[in-house]
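Hi Y.,

Following your request, here is the sequence exactly as I used it, all 139 residues.
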Amino acid sequence: FARQLKMMVASYTPRRVFLDVDELDNLDNIAFTVRSNTEHLIVLMTQEALHRLWVAVEVTSAHLNEVPIHVVHLSADVTSIVSDASSSDAEYMWSGSDIMELHKVGLGASDVESAYRHLAQLPYYTLPMGAPFDEQQRQ
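Below is the corresponding structure, written out as C-alpha cells. Let me know if you'd prefer a different format.
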C-alpha cells in the first residue's frame, strides 16, 4: 500500500518521493534525509508504525527540524495508537541497542516522546486501504 501511495503522490509532483523502506539499512541516512532533503513527511499510521525505530527517527527528525508532518490513518482503530504512543515512555518501547541507535543519530528518548506528543495533536486524514485506487485519489 505504501508503494501505491508513493505512486499516487509522485503523479502530482515533479519532486522525488522518498519511501523509507527502501533505505532501512542506514538509520543515519534516514535522519539526514528527513532533516535536509524533505519538504513534507507523510506518516502512514498503522498499528505498528510508532513502534518501529526508523519511524521514530523520521518523525522525531521532522519534528525537531520543523518539517511539516501529515498523518494518514489507514484504519479507524489507529487513533488510540497515536495517543497511547504519545503518552508512553519511549525508553520502554525499544531495546537497549535500539536506544543506542537513536543516540547514534543524535536523538534521545525524550526527543521521541516530544515528537509523538506533537504527532498526537496533528489533524489526520483517513485513507481506506481497501478502497479502489481512484477512490483513494479523491480522498
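The first strand starts at residue 41 and ends at 45.

Thanks again,
Q.
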